[in-house]
Design brief:
By secondary structure, the chain is an all-alpha fold. About 80% of the residues lie in helices and about 0% in strands.
Length: about 280
């Protein structure tokens, strides 16, 4: 455990030294504060609170922003060490390859979690200071959104590690990381929508659609935040979708956890077989 924490601390110190932590935190806080101030403007006409509006706005922002940041953090975590020759030095220490993967992964996820909690927490404090959300129950979707955002970031960090363990140079890893972001964030839903329209309900039953949605971590995150709470789903316009799909929040969180575990296990297996 001591070796894992040492490696995690090393990644965090590297993040602090190259300004990754500062840049991500400032970006997340600036966007979250902007959305919390501007996004709450229409609440007077639609009858929902500013906290619910902010949850919907931040969830939509997170699906695009956090996976990209996570992949940029992690795509060269292993292949970069190989190219610089530092992996050979690291493996001379009494530390296993599994400990290297876990330690580096925890370091990168800690950076993302710090930036997310601080950035989105600043938006929550701004809403509270403005007199929003006097009832504690109103804040449940907001807290769940922050926690699930960290899970989503961890899932894409794990995907970055899988890419980093599978390729031989940083250029290829960068290209695959961008491709993974395009696939899961943009192309997957467009393709699924096209299939649903073309099928016209003949083959694509709600059960099949449920499985296909769980195969994308971005969709699992979106459904958890936009359909998991009644007051949020009504404003997000997906209350009918929530009734049709019937994916419980626990299942969606389990899907996100699986998207962390499976790529990380595959990355570990590839890393174990790789010659230095």
């Amino acid at each position: 455990m001591r070796h894992i924490l040492t490696l995690a601390g090393r990644e965090i110190r590297d993040g602090l030294r190259n300004r990754w932590v500062l840049a991500i935190t400032v970006l997340m806080a600036a966007l979250a504060l902007t959305l919390s101030f501007l996004g709450s403007a229409p609440t007077g006409t639609v009858g929902v609170g500013p906290v619910e509006v902010t949850v919907v706005s931040l969830s939509s922002l997170t699906i695009f922003l956090l996976p990209l940041i996570a992949l940029l953090l992690s795509y060269d975590a292993l292949v970069g060490e190989f190219e610089r020759g530092t992996m050979l030095l690291l493996l001379t220490y009494p530390v296993s390859r599994l400990q290297i993967i876990i330690g580096k992964f925890l370091g990168h996820v800690s950076i993302l979690a710090f930036a997310t909690v601080l950035g989105y927490g600043a938006a929550g404090l701004a809403l509270a200071a403005g007199g929003s959300g006097g009832n504690l129950a109103v804040w449940r979707p907001f807290v769940a959104m922050i926690g699930s955002s960290v899970l989503l970031g961890a899932a894409f960090v794990a995907l970055g590690y899988l890419i980093s363990a599978a390729v031989g140079n940083r250029g290829t890893a960068a290209g695959l990381a961008v491709g993974a972001w395009l696939l899961f964030v943009l192309l997957y839903d467009m393709a699924l929508l096209g299939v649903l329209v073309a099928d016209g309900g003949r083959i694509m039953t709600p059960e099949i659609v449920n499985v296909l949605l769980l195969l994308n971590p971005a969709d699992a995150y979106r459904l958890f935040n936009l359909t998991g709470f009644a007051n949020v789903s009504v404003f997000a316009g997906v209350a009918g979708l929530a009734e049709t799909l019937r994916l419980p929040p626990a299942l969606l969180l389990t899907a996100l956890a699986a998207w962390i575990a499976v790529p990380l296990v595959l990355a570990t297996l590839l890393f174990q077989k790789r010659q230095v």
